[in-house]
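Q: Hi! Curious about what Histidine--tRNA ligase looks like structurally. Here's the sequence.
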Amino acid sequence: MTDKSKLIVPRLPRGFEDRTPADIAATDAMIARIKAVYQRYGFDPVETPLFEYTETLGKFLPDTDRPNAGVFSLQDDDEQWMSLRYDLTAPLARYFAENYDRLPKPFRSYRAGYVFRNEKPGPGRFRQFMQFDADTVGAAGAESDAEMCMMMADTMDALGLAGKYVVKVNNRKVLDGVLESIGLGKADPDKSLIVLRAIDKLDRLGPDGVRALLGKGREDESGDFTKGAGLDDEQISRVLAYTSAEGEGDPLFTDLIKLVSENATGLAGVEELRAMAALFASAGYGPDRIKIDPSVVRGLEYYTGPVFEIELTFAVTNEKGQKVVFGSVGGGGRYDGLVSRFRAEPVPATGFSIGVSRLANALKLTGNLQSEAVRGPVVVLVMDRDQTARYQAMVSELRNAGIRAEMYLGSSGMNAQMKYANRRNAPAVVIEGSNERAEGMVTIKDMVAGAEAAKEFTSNAEMKAARPAQVNVPRAGLVDAIKDMLA
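A: Let's find out. The predicted structure is below.
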């Protein structure tokens, strides 16, 4: 006997998850709809590897600047540091720079795949998760940023979320202008980054939580303390006045201009927002779908201009039993400096990323994504072990006709084989015992209809006697009978 003390305990690492066939099927259906929108806009697929050289990814992950913190890293045989990608944007920048001469400019692509964060896992916070990105590299105007926001809105509509979302748009140049007006910005980039990341938590922590992070710091419910930016009260008030600015059109832009006063960077950002708002209006995207919102920051350091987020506006119950807005399921912005790390000339770029797992969860809550059991294969039961060649021939005929099918490969009897077919969610089973074989017949049991019919019987004996949804057909008519049943 095996020494149980030496057995390895099967356990999933924290921050990772297994996916069932139903989960995969539901996600694939969602991704197909997203792809259709991206392709309608003229974007083509590109795939990059999971690993990149760490220097290629750069030091852009929030809250870290070490090669093996925040990202999962290793050294290859020539002692080069490589890291699992933490997003799909930095690898795209490398791909574009490496293939610069042969790619069309602007270059429009989309990518879907897993990304990895070496961070503390928690509820809804994973170390491996899927993103779906679209990017335009080589276009500098507000038109390309506005197009991204419109495509985000159209994607949400295609997923059945019309009326349940808003795309929020801001510009990092305006915020940079605010920071420079209080003595930060380029004068103190490290502290400015802390301020940006604090504002990025506004939807989760609220104004009071952000105020604490802008000041001395904040202690969360677990007792963990996050050091703050160390701003004084006047600086904090100016930053929060910016993030709380509201309204539409010229009144909002007038307020933003007052906040950045004579700062050239900030004023340029306001004008870019004004140009984008005009494009939204001309294309028929009202503020109920796309709106200017100064509270949007985006935590990654590489954004240089417009930034945007998709926020789902319907309420859900959180782990504390409170009703809260579902929140962000994706976002992006302009990152003009990322590709230029590899090229001497400036290369403008803009794009956005959808959090696939989070969006799938939202679609389940709204009934727009059904994670139902995937229909399994037709199962051919093995009634006589010396006749497996006959059963295999049946399976081959079904497969050649385009029907999912398998022969039972275990060693159990008929009852266990039927239980197996149920667990496989088989739509039908094929039975050929000695009696059927002698008559040139096979028995087909419709598992779906049988399950429905079984609800009307009061006992197993009564059900077995009635044999609901079970038919005998000539062996030569097996494929046609199964086709009719599945139809």
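A: A fun detail: The first helix runs from residue 21 to 40.
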